[in-house]
From TrEMBL, chains A, B, C, D:
Short name of one Pfam family: Chorismate_synt
Binding site for NADP(+): 48, 54
Family, per entry: Belongs to the chorismate synthase family.
Pathway this chain belongs to: Metabolic intermediate biosynthesis; chorismate biosynthesis; chorismate from D-erythrose 4-phosphate and phosphoenolpyruvate: step 7/7
EC number from the UniProt entry: 4.2.3.5
Domain of life assignment: Bacteria
Matches recorded under Gene3D superfamilies: Chorismate synthase AroC
Protein name: Chorismate synthase
GO CC field: cytosol
GO terms classed as biological process: amino acid biosynthetic process; aromatic amino acid family biosynthetic process; chorismate biosynthetic process
Length: 366, 366, 366, 366
């Protein structure tokens, strides 16, 4: 079974291959009356666009989005919004040699095993190029969130590259847009630049950790037991290419804590509970608390490297393969805007779901 | 929106509260003709049952499962299988004081904020007691997997308690069933016993890391892009109470690796590719490779501790709360059989989905 | 693929066989805070209960519903509501002879062909007994509708039995509860009694047409294009045992009308449009108009008759089969409360969906 | 909630408005390896195309389909297939006067009431133009069915126009493609031509009854209880613009039959049961029997007529409205290829679902 849709009330179906004529997202369930402009969506796409620094793939795609439906006179109508991005720079010839051989770490093998055939050009459907469609859909979600929850803010950043993590004491969200790594620690950003240059020259690549923080999230989002906000975020982030782990709040580190340390104690706030800490990452029992929602995830190193690796061909031959083509030495970088988009889509979906079931009614404190 | 169903072709809906008359699982989509016996399901439930060692809650539940539908003369008929477990030891009086106050780290607060009211007895729907229903459903999934993929094996184990991780060199799967911690390292199991006793006496609790390994998983399971096997496993594990992070294969550690290190190189095997390593955890592009599927997750320390913690009441009063009742000092222990059950359900669901879409046809190697 | 759930935000999963230990409905998505009492649900079940007149099956079932979850101190909590009805009068011995032969007009054959095995006792899962679970779930839906849309009324009635249709001029909704046929035309109810007695004595059965009218339905319910209110109602009614056709408003008769005749012209009303007719049955473009929603459906004659009919056995033998057991001579009668329940479930589901997507905001007139 | 997807394993999401830049279908779940060609899909679109006879709207659309994804070297890859049709003849100026007034019988009013705003040009999303996307998706479904069930045939036809029904004795499927009405009775086709010319001149329109027959459908398709084949077909047909009723087999007429008359008796056939009649329309208990699947539905008369009709404006003014633009005097005609497409999509979806759950295993006879 293929399954290219996520979300329940805000539903996004992405389509398209790396080297096909176009790719896009069919966005169903956007509330009516939301101002939607191609320019605003383009803004988010431009942040993800390849070729903007020497640290990302040199494939040059205009990544220009067209809105084909669902918007009339600048407002969403409540009907499906089709977002299309035409592929322009399709250097398919780079991929001839992977038609019948399997790049280690790639989905070449598994698509072959599952489907029996595949569009091998640039990884076809399994290419990270698919994430452009997510970012476009995320642009719609952001517009709807802006209309419904004006104070909500979503910020993605890279907090670790290879073994080098940021110094939280130096972190400043204002720095995130000022370096090619979405790094909140300007000192570390410098260090990463040198580190990554060296790796690239060594025909190698490296992994990263991304963090996405959503502030201003209303309490009450999340649909227990099998539509928990954290479970949906975990699936959303894990669905991004090359992601191998997802953490909420304290994440893996929670295993080493005691109950005393981990308790997020509460005092009375102006307008609900005031938490003294946020180990929980803003989610309890699968439902948002009103604190910052904090998600982190690990991206593995780019599998496409210029160093030969042992593999096999469909014919069963054992070969050494060098992956040519234009690749990101650290795919984590471009995962940042994608993760922000996924966060936006998940939050909007849950906002609509909650409004449907509970009517947005809330228990009070005090 | 409430949402208590998971799976697409193998669909499980759990229902019931900690201190209601009963809880259970409505299991829809089990293939017909599978031998299903209450005894076999009971076997899995007994592994999860509370009160089996001094390291788990002393609540004593028979946890006896009844099959109310969907099985005829010992075989599944293809219609919904209703599994019911009656609650017998409901000491509701322990919970009177949390009717209007919110235990830190619990879902009391968020259920109150979302729904405006809640069944507070024992945490109601948010109690880990709900996981008994998952284990029962997992028993059905295991029976179907046994019929369809006889070589498939699922093994859960605890690999870290607090800061103390197992020594992989000492690990032996045969040890897992021989200690109350599902620990494959017998030396560490001893150490944990002393460590946990001390914590319990100190009115504290601790987190853990659980690992679940599935071997014999056919290649080709997983439904890209938004039904990836790893994304579905991430959601499944994150939906378990107190889980804060999920890893596939190398997990968070993948961030620190280079592309050379992380590549799972391949040689030709007897019957498909032979991998030289398994950093990927058996999943590439969201589809199983045929290697072991390896999932790990972190469970936070039990929030219910006998040490007072600051919190507020629904009325807005600031109080110090001690959580009475009978609690696990390390909830991670009892998460092991639950995680195995979730793995079984997810794998069966994807097996059926794959058979539906591709007919199980496969590309070959050699 | 088995599929025993209907609805999106208000989701009902029924389970259970005719002669198993119990049957019921897992109701997920009921808004929180709705007063739910077993007695109120029982009220609806009693209307459907067999054995209440000589015109329905003499199987005597208490059909007593128990609420096992999701309700606390008389109010829905927003978690799944499990409704269980135990089977008490299971005369399985009547069914021994259909274990291997296929009653014409029944699902015996198709369950055999699809699943390879079946619970043959009383038709197993395909028995109309399953509809008790729908009526119970409908009781929950009615309670939620009463809280959210107090003016909404749902009335089911039989308008034709065999070739004998009611006289609309004589129809009076107050009559519906005063005869065993839910017939609004008291003269016709008398006639049907004699007609049905004769049929029963002749070891025959007969079909019927049922009409369900919902008044006070808010405008705006329905989710185009593939969640249209009329399409969902059509599926809901067609899913009832023995239903062969569904009509909305003018129904099949619309085919014979001209555009002039069929136009529901509008004048300005006090609070929106005032329609001069209701050929549309209260639905335009799949969305409710605010007029009465009118659905009609045809129920085929009971297939179980005491007259021998030609059929085959699983072994391939050609036989003449007489269906013993206790059967309704006109199953349409007991379909009335079932259809009301389905109407309630569909309307509540769409109310919640609409509130989720549009927030219930509306365009105005005037 | 908007909801523009139908199907479970074969999932079709349509998008686009009557007068937007384009419309199309995102088709997810087509099995891999199916030969898919734009020309073959175009063949089906050309049958639906407007402007091919004087009896359909004179809007001239090329209705040229482009495949943007999911097909590689002529074969489906198992990934989403995006089908796009650009709108070329958009005479929006015809629609200025319905921007603020509501055409009786149209969705103008309900879209306004539900969403608060709408793309009024040509009916926007509610236009029958959306059905072009269904026909394109149906082309993919037909290609997959041809690969999986070569003997399956789907034939749509008009069997009644206004009060004039065909004579079944004269019916010949070979005639269906030889007249502009898809009429199997050539004598009646002549009569309809004169009848419709007269209506058109009188500025009126008329309804119709369409029948779709699928032969060669394997037994066992349909997913009880809430994914019954007949219920899914009912929803699918009811979702087509202007449809007001759906019948399976005997349909509404079943109400007037007795159990003796309605029984489809069986003898032993060469390869399973041989039915002596087909009142059931090929479906028992929601599962296909192997007989012809027979669906009929009523289409109301075109609401857009040149005769003035009373209505109101958004401002609350009472007016008489004449619907200009280019309209079909009998929209039923163009519903024929649409209904065939829906039948193909539903059958393929159920074929994949059944293969997923039961593995296609079957009970035998003899």
């Amino acid at each position: 079974m293929s399954f290219n849709t996520f979300g329940h009330l805000f539903r996004v179906t992405t389509w398209g291959e790396s080297h096909g004529p176009a790719l896009g997202a069919t966005v169903d369930g956007c509330p009516p009356g939301v101002p939607i402009e191609a320019e605003a969506i383009q803004h988010w796409l431009d942040r993800r666009k390849p070729g903007t620094s020497r640290f990302t793939t040199q494939r040059r795609e205009a990544d220009e989005v067209r809105i084909l439906s669902g918007v009339f006179e600048g407002l969403s109508t409540g009907t499906p919004i089709q977002l299309m991005i035409e592929n322009t720079d399709q250097r398919s010839k780079d991929y001839g040699d992977i038609a019948t051989s399997f790049r280690p770490g790639h989905a070449d093998l598994t698509y072959h095993l599952k489907y029996g055939l595949r569009d091998y050009r640039g990884g076809g459907r399994s290419s990270a190029r698919e994430t452009a469609a997510r970012v476009a859909a995320g642009g719609v979600a952001r517009a709807a969130l802006a209309a419904l929850v004006p104070d909500l803010r979503i910020t993605g950043m890279m907090v670790q590259m290879g073994p080098h993590g940021i110094d939280r004491a130096r972190a400043d969200l204002a720095e995130v847009d000022r370096n090619p790594f979405w790094c909140p620690d300007p000192v570390m950003a410098e260090e990463w630049a040198g580190y990554l240059d060296a790796l690239r020259k060594a025909h190698d690549s490296v992994g990263a950790v991304i963090e996405v923080v959503a502030s201003g999230v209303p309490a009450g989002l999340g649909a227990p037991i099998y539509g928990k906000l954290d479970a949906d975020l975990a699936a959303a982030m894990m669905s991004i290419n090359a992601v191998k782990a997802v953490e909420i709040g304290e994440g893996m580190a929670a295993a080493a804590l005691t109950g005393r340390e981990n308790a997020d104690e509460m005092r009375r706030g102006a307008d609900g509970p005031a938490f003294l800490s946020n180990h929980a990452g803003g989610i309890l029992g699968g439902i948002s608390t009103g604190q910052d929602v904090v998600v982190r995830f690990a991206v593995k190193p780019t599998s496409s490297i210029l160093t030969p690796r042992q593999t096999v061909t469909a014919g069963g031959e054992e070969i050494d393969l060098v992956t040519k083509g234009r690749h990101d030495p650290c795919v984590g970088i471009r995962a940042v805007p994608v993760a922000e988009a996924m966060m936006a889509c998940v939050l909007l979906d849950h906002l609509l779901r909650d409004r449907g079931q509970t009517g947005g009614a809330r228990g009070h404190i005090g």
